[in-house]
Design brief:
Blueprint lengths: L1 E7 L3 E6 L4 E6 L19 E8 L4 E7 L5 E5 L7 E6 L3 E6 L8 H13 L4 E5 L7 H16 L3 E4 L8 H8 L3 E5 L6 H8 L25 E4 L5 E4 L13 H4 L4 H4 L19 H8 L4 H13 L6
Parallel strand pairs: 3-5, 8-9, 8-11, 9-10, 11-13
Antiparallel strand pairs: 1-2, 1-4, 2-3, 4-5, 6-7, 12-13
Helix pairs in contact: 1-8
Length: about 300
């Protein structure tokens, strides 16, 4: 029988079978998929084959994993050379960001978008806590919205506290499987609680001394939306390390740079010091925003090249 993985705790899983029944599941032996060196062989969103193990306990064994349509990974918190698959078979990703309490950096937003682009997952950026914005934050939000909407991303403002823009965000989730992500403290759990009041997921304030959110969600978990579709809640991410993106490929995941790649003088142009670079010309003309170009340079600088 087929089932979909809704929760992974590392050793046990919660799956929903084709009849809509939730069951506890485990794996026997090791799974190796597509040569991936992953810290978790099975992820939330995976479609799996199950066999009944204990009818009284309602537990099953996972025997096979179907091919994934896509998946999204981060570097493993325990080992930076290994993948940790956050979730699979995703229709879109929604990044919760904030301009204060805690502040989400543009670099973090860009790394998230690169990861989504690399796995061909459409992305939406939602800035929560808009009720806290004063004139300075409103100007910043307008500037960021302009940068990202110009290159094709949807950017929205929302205040869960004041119930502003919440319904508009819910509409975007209908009938899709959406990955929710962002730093701890940006409002992911509060948003899920507005959709599923009975869940009462734990929420925590931002840690005062560091200005960063505290981790509340330990494992990724998927929920069926009452109005159709599913959301995947993920652990709050402090840093998002890019996995297996070579320096030569990075520009492909910036849509505005990707458009100009074939116009550069050299086909292996890295858009840094080369002559005849269409990307640098676009930055000087203002058609590629300087902040995005700086972000590209910073990320390029931090990618460690593997020696094969």
């Amino acid at each position: 029988m087929k089932a979909t993985v809704y929760k992974s705790t590392g050793s046990w899983y919660v799956v929903q079978n084709e009849e809509g029944v939730f069951l506890n599941a485990r794996i026997l032996g090791k799974f190796k998929i597509d040569g991936l060196t992953s810290t978790n062989p099975i992820a939330v969103g995976d479609v799996v084959t199950i066999e009944e193990e204990n009818e009284l306990e309602g537990s099953v064994t996972i025997t096979e994993i179907d091919d994934r349509k896509n998946y999204i990974t981060r570097t493993s918190p325990a080992n930076k050379h290994k993948h940790h698959i956050i979730a699979s078979n995703i229709g879109q990703s929604l990044l919760f960001a904030t301009l204060k309490d805690p502040k989400t950096s543009q670099g973090f937003i860009d790394r998230f978008l690169i990861t989504s682009e690399a796995y061909q997952i459409p992305s939406i950026i939602v800035f929560n806590k808009s009720d806290l914005y004063k004139e300075k934050e409103l100007e910043k939000f307008a500037a960021i919205k302009s940068i990202y909407e110009t290159i094709g991303y949807k950017v929205m403002g929302m205040s869960i506290e004041k119930n502003i823009g919440v319904e508009e965000v819910k509409i975007l989730l209908q009938d899709k499987t959406t990955l929710l992500s962002g730093h701890s403290g940006v409002g992911k759990s509060s948003f899920i609680n507005t959709i599923f009041p009975a869940l009462q997921l734990k929420t925590q304030d931002v840690s005062g001394w560091s200005g960063k959110g505290l981790h509340t969600t330990t494992f990724a978990e998927m929920f069926n939306l009452p109005f159709g579709g599913r959301v995947i809640d993920t652990p709050g991410i402090r840093e998002l390390g890019l996995v297996d993106i070579p320096k030569q490929e990075l520009s492909h995941y910036f849509p505005e740079i990707r458009e100009l790649i074939n116009d550069c003088q050299f086909n292996n142009c890295m858009h840094i010091n080369e002559p005849g670079c269409a990307v640098k010309a676009a930055v000087q003309q203002g058609s590629i925003h300087i902040d995005r170009y700086i972000s590209y340079c910073n990320i390029l600088d931090k990618i460690e090249e593997k020696s094969y």
